[in-house]
Amino acid sequence: MSLKRVLLIVGGGISAYKAPELVRALDKHGIGCRVILTQAGSQFVTPLTLASLTKDDVHQELFNLTHEAKMGHIELSRSADLVLVAPATADLIGKVANGLANDLASTALLATDKPVLMAPAMNVRMWEHPAVQRNLATLRADGVHFIGPDEGAMACGEYGLGRMAEPEAIATALEAFWYKASADKPLRGKRAVVTAGPTLEAFDPIRFLSNRSSGKQGYAIAHALAEAGAVVTLVSGPTALNDVPGVSMVRVESAREMLAACQSALPADIFVAVAAVADWRPETRADVKLKLKGDVKAPAMTLVENPDILATIAQPGPKRPKLVIGFAAETHEVLAYATAKRTKKGCDWVVANDVSGDVMGGESNRILLVTAEGHQSWPEAPKTQIAVRLAEAISAHFKTSPA
Q1: Distance between CA atoms of residues 276 and 215, nearest Å
Q2: pLDDT on residue 271
Q3: Under DSSP, is residue 377 helix (H, G, I), strand (E, B) or coil?
Q4: Is 187 left (phi over 0), alpha (psi -120 to 50) or beta?
Q5: Do residues 77 and 7 lie in contact, with contact meaning Cβ atoms separated by under 8 Å?
Q6: CA distance 320 to 271
Q7: Which one-letter DSSP state was computed for residue 17?
Q8: Which residues pair with 375 in a beta bridge?
Q9: So which residues are the catalytic ones?
Q10: Range 101-106 contact pairs with CB under 8 angstroms and sequence separation of 24 or more
Q11: pLDDT given for residue 403 in this prediction
């Protein structure tokens, strides 16, 4: 399961034949990737090869209606943790250095807000040309990072600087880049487990009991904790959301599956139970679709209580996380219920919110943070900002209580 994801742009040099080996090296290092293959790159490696290895679509055209409808080039350029260009040809380097965007690869590179690493590959005379060196200097000044090139024999028969770095060296360099980038992040070295979304409790093969949770707040918290340097596992019930870059995803359906996944993810330093877990489930699940209309008498449904995930994880023991945080979604008497929940469940904090409006499925939230010291009222804000503020509070907690 990949903890990091890159957008790999394969340029049109002979080194493009190493792209499949690079995908394998990235996978070995726990790095997943999505691929943009330039038109020139497709002369050296086929889209089918890369699609088979990545188990994902290979993107080639800027004006592809199918891909733009499913994942536009803007989202494509920002859905990964990093953009890797390998091989980075003189043409691609020149386009980005001069702000040109006439194909999918150059457009994605200009649209991205993520770090960009390039692995140059070209003839030694091209590498030494003043125009290429000017473009390299421009990109370095713009914050682009470079891996290689190496010195050695080239496909054209010449020898010198210009060979693309080997796939294993590129994968190792990416790990080193992320390690350096996370060196001063407050939650570096911490492990976190976050739950998100609803659970789905089936009573026949096609119908179920559930709730309106969208998962947006939990996904935002997982992302914020990862950005703060934590190694995050996100255990998610059924949602329509994309995987969170840089986060290990575990998708489940029922409350019992969610509890098992959470226990498997331990030990951890931080546990944030954001998921809206169904309190009850049908005692039995029919093997065939139940007939509920016409002359058929509606069957009686007996409900049984689901496991209490928050209380189970919060129980004292060697695997109890150092900081256990529960969520309380209430429609009235929010503070009173949240305070009682913190005591009853045995958790350290409770994040309480009023869901009487359009909070479930909406883009914003207004919460109370309830701790042993009292409570704080946070103003309404986008869920992404709530997540960042909670990550900051968690970071502050570990700074003052490192043990």
Answers
A1: 9
A2: 98
A3: strand
A4: alpha
A5: yes
A6: 9
A7: G
A8: 370
A9: 156
A10: 103/38, 103/39, 103/62, 104/36, 104/38, 104/59, 104/60, 104/61, 104/62, 104/73, 105/9, 105/11, 105/36, 105/38
A11: 58
What's the rounded Cα separation, in Å, for the pair 277 and 249?
Answer: 18
Q: What is the pLDDT of residue 161?
A: 85
Burial of 59 from C-beta contacts in 10 A (0-12 / 13-18 / 19+): buried
N- to C-terminal Cα separation, the chain: 29
Residue the block writes with tokens 């409006």: 357
Distance of CA 89 to the CA centre of its chain: 29
Parts of the chain with a pLDDT under 50: 1-2
Distance (Å, whole) CA 16 – CA 37:
9
> How many residues are recorded in the chain?
403
The answer to whether 115 touches 145, Cβ cutoff 8 Å, is yes
Q: Is the C-alpha dihedral spanning 47, 51, 57, 58 positive or negative?
A: negative
DSSP states along 28-54:
HTTEEEEEEE-TTGGGTS-HHHHHHHH
Compute the CA torsion angle 128, 130, 136, 139 (nearest 10 deg): -170
Task: Please report the DSSP string for 88-101 in residue order.
Answer: E-HHHHHHHHTT--
* Model pTM score: 0.61
